[in-house]
Amino acid sequence: MWFWLLGYLVLMAKITAVLTAVMVLAAYLVLVERKLLGRFQVRYGPNRAGIYGILQPVADGIKLLLKEDLMPEGADRAIFLAAPAVVAITALMMFAVVPFGPRLTIGGREIPMVITDINVGLLYVFALSSLGVYGVALGGWASNSKYALLGGIRGAAQMISYELALGLSIVPVVMLAGSFSLVDIVNAQAGLPFILVQPLAFGVFLISAMAETKRIPFDLPEAETELGAGYHTEYSGMRFGLFFLGEYVHMQVMGALVAVFFLGGWRGPVLPPPVWLLVKIVLVVLFMIWVRATLPRLRYDQLMNLGWKVLIPLALVNILITGAFMAA
Amino acid sequence: MSVYSIFFYLIAALMILSTALAVTRKNMVHAVLFLVISFLASALLFFLLGAPLLGILEVVIYAGAIMVLFLFVVMMIRIRATEGSGFLLWHYLGAGGLSALYVAACLLLVRHSGPGTGAPMPAAVAAPADFGLYLFERHWLGIEIVSLLLLVALIGVLHLGLSPAGQRSGKGGPY
């Protein structure tokens, strides 16, 4: 009984720590992105709230929470209210299988540094990622607005297409690690991070990850110039905030997955393991921000061509090559 | 009654309820969503019974891929909700008869392979690697046939989707 209670407390502590870290990082990534975008465009970025604008996320949070929660007439009430939560929840839940350190031994009992190590961890991530499509598609549909509907449909089409490339690009990693468990995949990189063995898979995965998070140059579902704000045009207040939070958490998840699959996860010299994971996540996210500041938005046919005619064939060829090397 | 059986009956009730709602809703989007909930509930049942691989495949393939396509089509064609039930008596009878047949088959299956008969499905609760080995060692021919069928379907869709050569408006221009 005691051990059961202790295990429960440890689990709750891990969930609390991970959720807190992810939320705080999401809030500050917004600031980092705005600051960096400002610098890329030779301006200052937010610098009014606190020194260097350090309190800007707090101000944004308060503003979002206090704003009026509007709902358009003719909206499908239940679905309209639930859609932002679907986006945020699916993104947050993906962190449950990301390992942030080796096993800790405290008082003779081993504590795995991951919320849950299920033997289908990788598939779990993809399952949640495919459920996240519902939030975007339904948010757009339930708004009962043309722009939002177009954004939702584009979002669904884009996310379905790039999920295939995302999933196929990771097959060689699973072949090399011999497991779907993210813990085992990190352990398989004790000698050599997979980015050195699988550079092609890394490239395909990173591009597909950017498309999955619907960021420039893949932000067609929310293209400001043609669709208002796409699927979240009609949302205000914290419901819009949840879409926003979902996007930034999704960026972190993708950063964490790139780190786990290709950069050796929490492995690294000197610094403690969770810090290494954090550093790798932030590096990937900074790369995404840099790309956003550099590239223009793709046209819709270019987007679909890139996914179906370039990334998916590349990923398939990569699987064949890896298989040939492993069999030989 | 153990905690597991309580969860089992809760999830099973949710599954039956959401499936019933999916069949009876007039609004197509709502029907699709209730079916998604039903699939998620069956995935939870697989998890509860110790088969996480089957559970997660249920989510990835049914809830995550097939139903998204359904939703996509429903959103695109915008079906208006129709007035009245639209079903005739023989519709109900036919559906009832088919369901009874299905329930009978399931009961028969449970009788012969359920717990206590010594023939539950060991492959279903195995780790992913063992499950894959079992599938490709014992049933490779079936898998190959199914994948060939999918390939044929893929080529067929490609053929149907290609617009006739004369009607193409420029090469890959914006829509």
Observed structural traits:
heterodimer, A: 328 residues, mainly alpha, B: 175 residues, Four Helix Bundle (Hemerythrin (Met), subunit A), 6 helices
Topology:
The complex is a heterodimer of chains A (328) and B (175).
Chain A: H1 2-40, H2 56-66, H3 77-93, E1 104-106, E2 109-111, H4 121-142, H5 146-169, H6 171-177, H7 182-187, H8 194-197, H9 199-212, H10 224-227, H11 237-262, H12 273-294, H13 300-327
Antiparallel strand pairs in A: 1-2
Helix pairs in contact in A: 1-2, 1-11, 1-12, 2-11, 3-4, 3-11, 4-5, 5-9, 5-13, 6-13, 9-11, 9-13, 11-12
Chain B: H1 3-24, H2 28-48, H3 52-77, H4 89-113, H5 128-138, H6 140-161
Helix pairs in contact in B: 1-2, 2-3
CATH architecture of one domain in chain B: Up-down Bundle
Helix content estimate of chain A: 55-70%
Order of helices and strands of chain A: HHHEEHHHHHHHHHH
Strand order of the largest sheet of chain A: 1-2
User: What's the CATH class of one domain in chain B, please?
Assistant: Mainly Alpha
Q: Gyration radius of chain B, to the nearest Å?
A: 21 Å
SSE ordering of chain B: HHHHHH
Here the CATH topology of one domain in chain B equals Four Helix Bundle (Hemerythrin (Met), subunit A)
Major beta sheet summary of chain B: none
**Count of β-strands of chain B:** 0
Question: Structural class, from secondary structure content of chain B?
Answer: mainly alpha
